[in-house]
Design brief:
Number of helices: 5
Distance between the termini: 74 Å
Helix content: 55-70%
Radius of gyration: 23 Å
Number of strands: 0
Largest sheet: none
Strand content: under 5%
């Protein structure tokens, strides 16, 4: 209709951050994650024992802290299922979630967007399971 103003689609979209700002933010978060992992590795060194003495073996082997969650899974049942299949499934889910669950383009370049809540909850749930298994194994 003449006389009515229409808002173009470019103006109606939510503002996006620029590529430089996104890279800067991601680099900062990667640096924080690296510092956190370094702190965890310093505060909880792997259970390295003295040189092997095969005459007196330990009662129970221990894994380094980053594999403790898999060791805890192995205590639950079948080694193939709990030691191989579940870690492969968890890794596959974390790798495939962005491609299968979060396919909309409306929340692109927005952290914790509302359109990707299902994917965020799935990954958060898996991370909580892994961390809780790790803590359970370290408290043994």
């Amino acid at each position: 209709m003449p006389g009515t103003s229409s808002v173009s689609t470019a103006e109606s979209r939510e503002p996006r951050i620029g590529r430089d700002e996104l890279v800067r933010r991601e680099t900062f978060v990667a640096l924080l994650a690296t510092i956190a992992l370094f702190a965890v590795s310093v505060l909880s060194p792997p259970a390295i024992t003295p040189a092997a003495d095969f005459t007196s073996l330990p009662n129970e082997p221990t894994a380094p802290w980053f594999f403790v969650w898999i060791q805890e899974l192995l205590r639950l049942g079948d080694p193939f299922f709990f030691g191989v299949m579940i870690p492969v499934i968890i890794t596959s889910i974390i790798a495939l979630v962005p491609y299968l669950m979060d396919r909309s383009s409306s929340g692109v370049a927005v952290w914790f967007n509302k359109e990707g809540r299902v994917a965020q909850w799935i990954v958060l749930g898996l991370i909580v399971v892994i961390i809780s298994l790790t803590i359970r194994g370290m408290l043994r």
